[in-house]
Amino acid sequence: MADGRYQYLEVIGEGGMATVYRGVQKSLNRPVAIKVLSADLSDNPSIIKRFKRESLIIAGLNHPNIIHVIDKGTTSSGRPVFVMEYVEGQTLSEVIYQDSLTFNRKMDLLIQVCKGLAYAHKLGVIHRDIKPANILIDDEGNARLLDFGIASFFKDKQSGDENETKLVMGTEAYMAPEQQLGISETSELSDIYSLGVVIYELLSGQPPSNPVQPLTARVPEVTEELNALVMQCLSRHKQDRPSSVEKVKNIILRVMQGQHLGQAQQDRASEGLAAIQKRFGLLDVIRDDRYGAVYLYEEKSSNNLLVIKKKVGQSSGLKEAKILSQLKHPNIANIHGTSNKQHVFIIVMEYISGGTLQDRLIEPMPLASFLPLANQVCDGLAFAHRNRVIHGNLRPSNILLTSNLQPRISDFGLDEHYRIDPEKKNWYQPASEENSELADIYSLGAIFFHTLTGAPPEFKSNQLVHTKVFDALEADLQALLQRMLDIDPMQRPQSVEAVQSELYLLIKEQKTVVKPNLEGGVGKKRYIEGANADSTPLMLKIVSTIAVISIVLNIILLTGADEAIMAMLNAL
After folding, report:
1. How many domains does the chain have?
2. Domain of 285, in residue numbers
3. Quick one: 23 and 48 in the same domain?
4. Is residue 498 part of a domain?
5. What does the alpha-carbon distance between residue 180 and residue 345 come to, in Å, rounded to a whole number?
6. How far does the chain reach from its first CA to its final CA, in angstroms?
7. CB atoms < 10 A from the CB of 117, how many?
8. What is the pTM of this model?
9. Are residues 216 and 108 in the same domain?
């Protein structure tokens, strides 16, 4: 790059869209891969503008199945540059050519690709050039996706040669039919078509022909269900394809029934859970380390997906989980049941497919999106507090999101602090403060600050450090966040309902009708009747009434955990 922070070494890859160099980041003396995009990009100001905007989002992608972009910039001649982590390994195209993988290993790689692609799609990032050459298999056997979104920078390329435009968009054999009309027609469904081509080629050794021959005729291990999935992905009509990569991944997991996992992983999963194997099938390992594990299971009779969290040797969160297993709220992850036997603590909860709020924090969230989300998070936390359940570790990673982005709080009472690097700051917990409702309100304020500004809060001499993005927020919202993050608990709002009452006024403010000021050039705001400062007591009454109604409804709707789940837990 132009500033000299990186040393360019030899060329390790070259194509129509970019040249890739092996390089060194001088400050850390670490190897990097430097991708210099085509010189055609530097001639178009609109492309450079898009590069500066979209490359920040691409650089924010943080997933174990995606090559991480660590920096971006331009060369001295103005050519856009991505700096990526340097990973040793082989491309999937090389692996396919060698034809040395078992069927189960191939499916394991495909599941990993789906995880990385689904994560990016949830953040609104389309790859646009999914193919085996853009999938790296590292030396530890992990699939890593390359080059997210780079084709989008060619959207405004000024060229009268339609074939050339198609060439820089990607490889013809992997492109969805609609991509032939231009990158502007490309969507997540286009990536799903390309994924279907990759699946077909990896399993059969050859890309699909026209017409497509069923995989079942070429690969004995392929089931009718898997074949139907691939054929759906390869539909020329995008509306006939699976609606998301998440759905593709889950169908593959159901087909495999855990066979893609190594024997050691399966053995660890069965420890303490052996009694459930007949009624519940292990589909995947979400996390597994010395502190515990998180597994994806399927209830065989209903095909419902469940998450089982297993902790060994500690039971923090057991009390909270037992209480919440008897309660239901739309903004709290549904707990089906708990078990604590032989030093193994287990929580069985619903599977929520939209990722976490942490995943979404790669850029500031617009106020119009933030306010309804924040209000729902407050609904869930206020409900828990009314039932004497303190969270104690509230952070963006345990605010789960459904497929339609409805938040659901999870992990009440679970002591996850051991996961935090002691050398890193814990932005979401007040220092040296016991768990309490007021400590949860501080955590809520830190989450709101991060969501709105794109960065967690920082303090200097116990005072919140203002940023340009923070100072651009509504004055009332700034004041609310500062009080929620006050070092003195007594200066914070004293309940989540109090936070909600102030958010409610901001929500009403967002519904303001703006009409031109006929007497001058600046518009005047006309408020919906009752949406003014004097309405605060009324708002508090409304919030209190809603709280009472919520309690009554939950008493009416109160049910025990699902009988099958309880039978499973009792058998452990």
Report:
1. 3
2. 263-352
3. yes
4. no
5. 53
6. 58
7. 30
8. 0.82
9. yes
Q: Is residue 519 part of a domain?
A: no
Structure tokens at 476: 């009332």
- The model's pLDDT over 422-444, given as tens digits with 9 standing for 90+, comes to 556 678 988 888 999 999 999 99
120 and 245 inside one domain: yes
Is residue 240 in a domain? yes
Q: Are residues 139 and 240 in the same domain?
A: yes
Q: Do residue 242 and residue 295 come from a single domain?
A: no
Beta-bridged to residue 282, according to DSSP, are: 297
Q: What is the 3-state secondary structure (H, E, C) of 296-343?
A: EEEECCCCCEEEEEEEECCCCCHHHHHHHCCCCCCCECCEEEEEEECC
The residue among 256, 291, 314 that closes a domain is: 256
Q: Please enumerate in sequence order all residues whose Cβ is within 8 A of that of 468, keeping only pairs 6 or more positions apart, or say none.
A: none
Whether residue 290 is contained in a domain is answered as yes
Task: Note the residue count of the chain.
Answer: 572
**Best CA proximity match to 437, nearest among 484, 405, 399:** 484
User: How high is the mean pLDDT in each 10-residue block of the chain (572 residues)?
Assistant: 83 79 92 84 66 71 90 82 90 94 96 96 88 94 85 46 40 85 82 97 93 93 97 96 96 95 88 79 89 89 91 80 94 92 84 92 91 96 97 94 94 68 72 92 97 93 92 95 96 96 86 45 36 44 50 44 60 60
Domain boundary among 68, 85, 102: 85
Q: What DSSP character marks residue 533?
A: G
State the Cα–Cα distance between residues 302 and 314, nearest whole angstrom.
Answer: 31
Going from the C-alpha of 402 to that of each of 122, 249, 356, the distances in angstroms are: 11, 16, 9
- CA distance linking residue 539 with residue 529, whole number of Å: 13
pLDDT digits (tens, 9 = 90+) for 201-249: 999 999 998 899 999 999 999 999 999 999 999 999 999 999 999 999 9
What is the distance between the alpha carbons of residues 229 and 251, in angstroms, rounded to a whole number? 8
Rounded CA-CA distance 243/353 in Å is 13
Domain match, 20 and 125 both: no
CATH number at residue 325: 3.30.200.20
